[in-house]
Amino acid sequence: MRRCHHSFFIVALLLAFLAAPAWATAADTLFSTGKQLFDQGHFEEAYKELYKAFQEDPANPDINFYLGRAAFETDRPEEAVMAYERVLMIDPNAQRVKLELARAYLRLGSREVAKQYFKEVLATNPPEQVWKNIETFLAAIEASEQKHFINGTFTYGHAWDDNARLAPVSDRVSAGLFEFQLTGANATPQHDQINTGTLVLNHIYKNENYPFLWKTSATSYNALYQSLHDLDINYLGLTTGPLFQQDGYSWDVQLLGTYIDVEHDRYQSSFGAASSVTTFFSKNLLGSLSIKAEGKKNYVDSGRDALNLLLTAGPILVVDENRVSLLFTKEKENADDEVNSYSRFGWKLRYDRSLPLDFAAFAGVGYTMTDYDAKHPFFGVYRSDDVQELTAGLSRLLWQDAAKRQALIVQLSHTYTNSDSNIDLYTYRKNVTELNLTVSF
User: Fold this and answer.
1) Helices 128-145 and 111-122, interaxial angle, to 10°?
2) How many Å is the Cα radius of gyration of the chain?
3) Running DSSP on this structure, what letter comes out for residue 200?
4) Distance from C-alpha of 327 to C-alpha of 286, rounded to nearest angstrom
5) Number of domains making up the chain
């Protein structure tokens, strides 16, 4: 009986000895195939082979390491984390594994855990390229955790205007069967120079619910005339509301308020809401649509208190160094005094071209048609205006810090305006040349 048991034990050991190399060979073969596929960039096929190898030899650190890498490349970050953790159980000081584990946790959105592993690897004084990559990852994590973003532009401008008061082309104006001679400041075109300053500040708050953001923008515009001080304008505008951004489009809803004074006396204020959508149809074509409703209060003439509705839409095409934009506008203003109520339709076409040496050129044409709702009390007709506008200019980038999104740009432009109206008083010509210096920050 003892001899029988002894023989059985020897046979069992022999079978185990013979079977072990077979198991190892199967795992090794699968691992070799999976690693080769991984090195060739066939990540999905590599994952399948490496997973089979893992099933044959689940404690093998090499198999788990490459299984983790294949899982990461095939968007299986949870499985990648489990594979790397198994390797660290065998070798807690495997720095390369910690580096890959940090990337996997970052993919999962566990930024604090990712930072911990990145810093552990950084503390071991890794090769230069490795620590540079880690610093890049840490900077990206810090940027992703930033909640408040502030940017803006400031533009100082100087303009030459040959018809600042919009004087008509003739100082003799017809009113039905009668004709009268204009006198005073509005009788003939008056030249003047204007100094302008425009400040735009934007604040974006990003919370944990990104891509939902909150954007607030403030605008200040001042125009000071050298001679015609009664035309001096100060404008303040504020908008605030949620902004939703995702790959391919953005959408915002904003509350808005404005205030205008003329020659330091309050002139008009408004309050309302607006919403806009921008969509990328392709890498070269995008479109925008916006709508705004605004209640206006005029402090000089209560008959101009009004509700204004504005709809704008249009495409933008970008091809290499060329940019073409077309914008359509439809506006309706209902004023307390019907003579000030109007319907307006317009469009603007603009072409921009980037040039060598950081120069850029642009040209545009625009048209606006305005029809008023009531007869003019003096002229006895329904006023109708057609305004054509031609503009062209040249700009140059003087300085730029791309990392900090800062730039300094100078721009020279000229705009010609031709207004034709069925009331002679509102038919005028106008030329404005502007030189602007803009800094963005």
Assistant:
1) 150
2) 35
3) E
4) 12
5) 2
pLDDT tens per residue, range 46-81: 999 999 999 989 989 999 999 999 999 999 999 999
DSSP 3-state helix, strand, coil percentages of the chain (rounded to 5)?
30, 50, 20
Residues 33, 64 within the same domain: yes
| Nearest partner of 165 among 305, 258, 262, judged by Cα | 262
By residue count, the chain amounts to: 441
Q: What is the pLDDT of residues 220-264, one digit of tens each?
A: 999 999 999 999 999 999 999 999 988 888 999 999 999 999 998
Cβ–Cβ under 8 Å, residues 200 and 152: yes
User: Is the overall model pTM greater than 0.85, yes or no?
Assistant: no
Same domain, 116 and 161: no
- Structure tokens that stand for 377 in this block: 């009390």
* Both structure tokens of 15: 């079978």
Whether residues 377 and 402 fall in one domain: yes
Residue where a domain stops, chosen among 130, 145, 160: 145
The domain of 380 spans 148-440
- The enclosing H or E element of 307 equals strand 306-319
**H-helix or E-strand spanning residue 117:** helix 111-122
For residue 14, which amino acid is it?
Answer: L
Domain co-membership, 179 together with 206: yes
